[in-house]
Amino acid sequence: MPAEEKHGIRLVSPRAWHGDFYFQEVAMPTEKKAKAIEQLKDLFTTSKVGILTDYRGLKVGEITDLRRTFKKSNIHYQVVKNTLARIAAEQAGKKQILDLFEGPLAIAFSQGEPNEPAKILVDFMRATKLTLGIKGGFMGDRALTPAEVQALATIPSREVLIAQVMAGIQGPIAALVAYLGSPISGLISLLQQRMKQMEGK
User: Fold this and answer.
1) pTM higher than 0.90, yes or no?
2) 55 phi and psi angles, rounded to 5 deg
């Protein structure tokens, strides 16, 4: 079967896959493309979470502002070419998100807290009144739907969760310490009250 050309990439023995061709063999890309693929592959491999967005409707300046906002939290936000990103994702073992590479696409890659990029994205849209289409994402080896990305944004940070858990643990401990630290007469009074309650049953 003769090879077919699509987006400058040679396809051999194409077969249907999500309405597109499945890349069984890819012609050797240029040095620049090879470097871009390798960089994206590294981002897909090392990131704990990635959020894929459609940036249509945003101006260059607005995308730059969003990129700067992400950068403050060490999150890399990059506009990507679908063909190269698809190859990089597949090489990185992220086949579960290959059907998301359609249309204008930018990806937020994060090695930090899983909920952070989603929260920053939602907060940015709320503050600027801008709308970005959330295509989905990935967390480890798991694909995320747009609804799951939205849900991620509502989860408190790790520090807040730890503080909430510690507060829940410290409450009973603080009460116990207060009882144990009170004068012995107070403890006796407490026991007497409890005995009266039991006698009244």
Assistant:
1) no
2) -95, 10
